[in-house]
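Possible regression after last week's pipeline update?

I re-ran a chain I had predicted before the update to compare outputs. Posting the input and the new output here so someone can diff against the archived version. Not blocking, just want to make sure nothing changed silently.
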Amino acid sequence: MKVIFISPCFNASQNLKNLLGSVRSQSDDRWFHILVDDLSIDNTSEVFNTVVGSDDRFSLIKNDEKKYALKNIIDVAREYQDEEDTIIAVIDGDDQLCNDDAVSLLIEEYENGNDVVWTGHKWDINGINISRAMPGPVDPYGWPWCTSHLRTFRSTLLKNVSDNNFKDPWGNWFQRGYDQALMLPLLKLTNKRKYIDEICYLYNIKSVSVNDRDWAEMKQLSTINLVRARGFLD
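New output (post-update):
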């Protein structure tokens, strides 16, 4: 079993060394890390190449069109949806891991039969963690949001989720608020959900890649409200 880390990013050069280092320092080496550069206008790709060097456990995808985080994640994850032994884990380009045993903890829970696993995290500004356990029988669309970073899922679960769940009614991929658009359909498919009560993820609230935070937060709220109101789409 292995963990595929997917990191969508835009103008993430300032944090990239920390992100890549946090993955590289994992005590369990059963991982591969894919960074998707979504048309950055800084030197994100150059920093990636410098830090990674010849380490073939890392891979860089440079987009030639803007996709935003959710489509970047799904496009990569779909390539692994037929692999029985693969875990998809998402680390945003502005963030990083903060627990060297994260990979080991995740693999243990998936080997125990879980399908969706998430961990505790801490916000950089105040150390807050909003993640917590979700009771097995509840409908995730009606349950308070509790499956934040580090969010992961068994890759084969994605085969049963239509891309319609990731788009608005006009067929456009969601640009903001992707976390709930991604996780709620996956959580809906299984009761084998597990929260690891360990802080594994550092969430940088003051993201340097978001230029207009008011616009981003408005789009995020709009996505969340729509996704929760309509529920799972076949």
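Follow-up from reviewer: compared with the archived run. The chain is about 30% helix and 20% strand. Marking as no regression found.
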